[in-house]
């Protein structure tokens, strides 16, 4: 599925966009018949409220879309887009005074709303509704954003029976081939020989071999490395999850899916960076050779880790991947993972919490989030919690007891494997629990558009 705007020269009907506060003035500027029609239909220009407007012969002449109030728009991202689903087939274009940010949000939201995951059940044939790219927006950039989001959603939504480490590797390699990126894959027991003992320890119990994947693209510009957690299914290992806890574990490779979507945007837009993407891909399963609670692993970096919960496996594979990435001292290193339930409890499913010690990075990212329609929230690398991840018998504890500050302690754990001064970690959820404007229930990318939009400030592009 490829998102697309209507052809710019195609005949179209207008969608008049009206804020609630401007409704009276807009009505007064239109024929009495239009005023009467909208008033009798109860149109108040509420956010997402759409009414079709007839011509003198009773045919559809156009539509009016409510933008509501500023407060309503803050509370419901992409809220205006929900009305567009009621449009009859044909090509449409936005008309009327509209803030550029709101214009771009509607355009992006419309593209995102066309997503369907129909691999296993053919979707109902949608109405052939097409929106022209609004004047003043960048249709190429918006389409690139939407296409990358579709990749991320497809990967997360695919069940583990059809998306294990092999299939994730295939998708990774296909992405690299599309843009001419160089690739590397290290699999199975070769992980031990080549210095990825914790990736091997987490994935060795599965019938599907663990691996670590890398792609490189670009020959000039600042160096940017993205690391994404690729746990294709997480049983919890010997610390087995209850059945209810496994229901969403096909999404535990959401970090990998999101960095792949971000990489696709960067490469498609030709950003002047030297990009590297690293994905450790495993399945956390149970068998006779599964890692055990209280095992002590030695990481690529040389730090020892006591495994106090085999269900805290994501930080183990990321630790080896981050250490590998850090050996090249990239100018910006970003990790993304569906790492902890504590992050979901702290900020819910909509926000992408992130950690960094660099205030300039944090400010650049936060400033980019709103125009990218991709909310983020800064969390603290809280140094006083460092003793919580030090078990005494080893350098690090992968699952501190006590149940406090779980997202923070996980982030602190990862930071121990990074010496590069400019590091950001995202503890995302990667799932929309119910249908929302431009976001169907299921897999979703978080943070990628904000990062893309913030890169010029973060890397001086």
Q: Could you explain the architecture of this structure?
A:
- This protein has 461 residues and is of the alpha/beta class.
- The longest helix is centred in the first third of the chain and has 19 residues, at 139-157.
- The model has no long low-confidence stretch (mean pLDDT 96).
- Strand 14, helix 13 (359-369) and strand 15 (376-379) form a beta-alpha-beta unit.
- Helix 5 (139-157) runs antiparallel to helix 10 and helix 8 runs antiparallel to helix 11.
- Strands 6, 7, 8, 9, 10, 13, 14, 15 and 17 form a 9-stranded mixed β-sheet that branches.
- The protein has 15 helices and 19 strands.
- The chain has 2 domains: 13-134, Leucine Aminopeptidase, subunit E, domain 1, CATH 3.40.220.10; 142-459, 3-Layer(aba) Sandwich (Aminopeptidase), CATH 3.40.630.
Condensed summary:
With 461 residues, the protein is of the alpha/beta class.
Q: What's the rounded overall pLDDT mean?
A: 96
Give the helix proportion (percent range). Answer: 25-40%
- What top-tier CATH class of the largest domain fits best? Alpha Beta
Output the CATH homologous superfamily of the largest domain.
Answer: Zn peptidases
The radius of gyration over CA amounts to 24 Å
Straight-line distance between termini: 31 Å
Strand fraction equals: 15-25%
Q: Profile the largest sheet.
A: 9 strands, mixed
Q: Would you identify the regions where 5 or more consecutive residues have pLDDT less than 50?
A: none
User: Helix segment count?
Assistant: 15
Per DSSP E runs of 2 or more residues, the count of β-strands stands at 19
CATH topology of the largest domain: Aminopeptidase
CATH-scheme architecture of the largest domain: 3-Layer(aba) Sandwich
Number of domains: 2
Multimer state = single chain
Q: Structural class of the secondary structure composition?
A: alpha/beta
- Bulk shape: elongated
